[in-house]
Amino acid sequence: MKRLFLLLALALPLACQHNAQHSELAAGSWDTQVRNQLNSLLETYQDSGAYAVFDFDKTSIVHDVSQALWVYQVEHLRYADAPAHGFLDGIPDASMAFGDITFAQMGEVLKEEYTQLAALKADGKTLDQIHATDTYKDFRARMACLLVGMDDVFGYEVSYLWMPGLLAGYTEEEAREVVHDAVLDQMGKDKLEVQEWTSPDGKWSTPVERGIWFSPEMKDLYHCLADHGITAYVCSASLELIVEVLACDPDLGVGLPPEQVFGLRFVRGDKLVAEYDPEYVQTIRDGKVTCIRTLMAPLHRDKGPILVGGDSNGDVPMLIAFDDTRHGLIIDVGRSPESKIGRLATQAREQNNTGRYLLQPNFAPIRGAVDGGGI
User: Fold this and answer.
1) What is the pLDDT of residues 89-148, one digit of tens each?
2) Domains of the chain in sequence order
3) What is the pTM for the complete model shown?
4) Distance between CA atoms of 66 and 57, rounded to whole angstroms?
5) CA angle 109, 75, 90 (to 5 degrees)
6) What is the DSSP code string of 180-227?
7) 185, 72 contact by CB (below 8 A)
8) How far apart are CA 63 and CA 213, in angstroms?
9) Do 263 and 56 touch, CB atoms closer than 8 A?
10) Among 36, 77, 132, 178, fewest CB within 10 Å belongs to which?
């Protein structure tokens, strides 16, 4: 106990000295007016007990951490019990929007192909050798089209359950290890790209985003908020466990405490299952507002966040919900101007980033990227 108090005593002066600096955002690739507004916010609310809330995928980071995990699992054939659930946990059966096939039928094909690929891996074939096979190329393209098909038929709520659901069968510790390996594999500005995944017969083909990147500008924003005594939270529609692996890492991410990260939650058990926790309001669309009101605001005198960051229609509810919000930071990833987030972006442009909403160009625009709906 004495040692704990000693460590705290040593740490506090350093923390206070660091906070006292009240650093400004570095210029970086910030829009000049956006940076000015954010620096003004930092100065105005320093040490006030205020807080900020950010979406994670395509807002805090470039690209999507769940997508990066999904790509990694496809490319490394790293699943716990995928053949047992046929890659279809959480997906209602219906006809896909293209290809004259049902989701159940697609799942059976994937199950058979994965069994063959797993056997090759068990026999000592390298990933490069496996990737060269027609079976793998068909498997990869079908997996990508399955994801697109889910979005077309069911909407993003189903795909945002299915993608992390591919961790089913792992313990939480094992799942975190897989996510960490995926982050290491996919992290880097040089790894950001859009590939076309096409089956050998040409029947299945769709663009796929690869890679993730935590820009220096967004890292700087998180750190400057902390320097000014403003608590930063993440409120994401990715699985909480997945986001924590990156956001809470002090080197790869920004070193957030896990209690400041909120995302989707599965039922707790010995192993992960693709089933939402019924005792928790999931952080999808209006669920993000509920999360802020019930789990963050009570820690901050029941006030709303002074800053909210987002990029998609799914972030609009929390961008507009709170009178206390001074700015809504919108990362421009090319959403349709007719969409809900697009209309807020238009408002920011018309007001030259001097009003409530601030529009920041994407920190790493990727040629060929597609406008995903996002939640």
Assistant:
1) 767 889 998 778 999 899 889 999 999 999 999 999 999 999 999 999 999 999 999 999
2) 23-62+214-361 (3.40.50.1000), 65-210 (no CATH)
3) 0.91
4) 8
5) 50
6) HHHHHHHBSGGG-EEEEEE-TTSSSEEEEEE-BB--HHHHHHHHHHHH
7) yes
8) 7
9) yes
10) 132
